[in-house]
Fold this sequence. Notes:
Number of helices: 10
Number of domains: 2
Strand order of the largest sheet: 1-2-7-8-9
Order of helices and strands: HHEEEHHHHEEHHHHEEEE
Structural class: alpha/beta
Amino acid sequence: xxxxxxxxxxxxxxxxxxxxxxxxxxxxxxxxxxxxxxxxxxxxxxxxxxxxxxxxxxxxxxxxxxxxxxxxxxxxxxxxxxxxxxxxxxxxxxxxxxxxxxxxxxxxxxxxxxxxxxxxxxxxxxxxxxxxxxxxxxxxxxxxxxxxxxxxxxxxxxxxxxxxxxxxxxxxxxxxxxxxxxxxxxxxxxxxxxxxxxxxxxxxxxxxxxxxxxxxxxxxxxxxxxxxxxxxxxxxxxxxxxxxxxxxxxxxxxxxxxxxxxxxxxxxxxxxxxxxxxxxxxxxxxxxxxxxxxxxxxxxxxxxxxxxxxxxxxxxxxxxxxxxxx
Length: 326
């Protein structure tokens, strides 16, 4: 009887050894963990796709708003019928931020570029060096407490030939740098390219950048009504008897603002005093502008920089745009 009783207990259906039950439990845990990982990955991918879509939509929306700001700036420039451009003109005034819609804010500022020295004017469109521009740029470097040798370096960076100037450098110099590279041999698109020159530091760039710009080589004139003191004094490098003139660069920003309250200062005729070379480079009207537009959508901010040209006929066109950088 005991023997039969033991057989009936051992033969009960539905009971598994403990080792098998442990394997099943572990397998179930593994499957659950894998399912959680897959679900988390799917959730993350879906969220990432949604964020990308929102960012792309925001960028397109910001670009459309920025183009609208360009149209408004162009209209303001066309409406300016004065023969001179000064800091008192309507287009040069700071505009308060505008809330276009809930959570969407537009800020814009129109800056003069013709009051700066155009580094691309060092080399003409046909590749020849502009000696008058070289003299002005060397003097500008002196007034900014920089070595005049950088004029040759910048010229070699732009000009199409491979022959270095006495204080310049062509491919051979740049191929020794780390990483090695070559000269651009073309017009500069951003003044920050000067940092590619060996030994030209961030500190040097900070000294020089407020006085220079990068425009087409044909932009050779400077609006003296908008130029700062360093640029104005640099023009005297073309003066036959007063090449070391240093007066305007000693004025403070407040003194300039006060003297320009009533119009153009200094007037072209007073500044150039009959010096033909100076007269050819000095004007009282701005041709080139930079529109800086910031669009805030929710917590994201987009920046659009637009290079704009006002032609002699008064028509205004956008020549180039860049997003989120200078």
